[in-house]
Write a structure and sequence with these properties.
Order of helices and strands: HEEEHH
Radius of gyration: 18 Å
Largest sheet: 3 strands, antiparallel
Strand content: 5-15%
Number of strands: 3
Structural class: alpha+beta
Strand order of the largest sheet: 1-2-3
Number of helices: 3
Length: 136
């Protein structure tokens, strides 16, 4: 597998994982770039990315742009889910289902953060290997 294929594999994995979350719309621009329209807690941001970016810096910049967008939306890395304090009354099945959905959504965003970090680490490792091959 060539370096560009591995880079695209990680990028596709992260991109597909983001697309699967509720509140994210996928689109394709006229120039061939892909876009993600992410809405979270009433805020909306759009991320543009090009799959053909095989250059290390371009790929790294795309991951940085995704991280920046998530942070701007208030989706922070490494947080743990804390459910709202329990009311004195018993929770109805609808309330329990809503809390469970909220927890799943929260965990999905945390999984995306982990996938982003893994993708960046793999990209860094591939870049270092390419540099070592060129040197020796």
């Amino acid at each position: 597998m060539s370096a560009s294929a591995t880079q695209n594999q990680w990028f596709n994995r992260v991109f597909d994982q983001i697309r699967s979350v509720e509140g994210v719309e996928d689109g394709e621009e006229k120039d061939g770039r892909r876009s993600l329209r992410i809405s979270f807690n009433g805020a909306v941001r759009t991320v543009h990315a090009s799959l053909g970016a095989v250059d290390y810096r371009a790929q790294k910049n795309q991951f940085r742009q995704i991280r920046k967008t998530l942070t701007e939306l208030g989706i922070r890395e490494g947080q743990t889910f804390v459910a709202p304090s329990r009311a004195r009354r018993a929770l109805t099945p609808d309330m329990l289902a809503a809390r469970e959905k909220q927890k799943r959504d929260f965990e999905a965003w945390q999984d995306i953060w982990q996938a982003l970090r893994k993708a960046e680490n793999a990209l860094d490792a591939e870049y270092e290997l390419a540099q070592m091959r060129d040197y020796y």
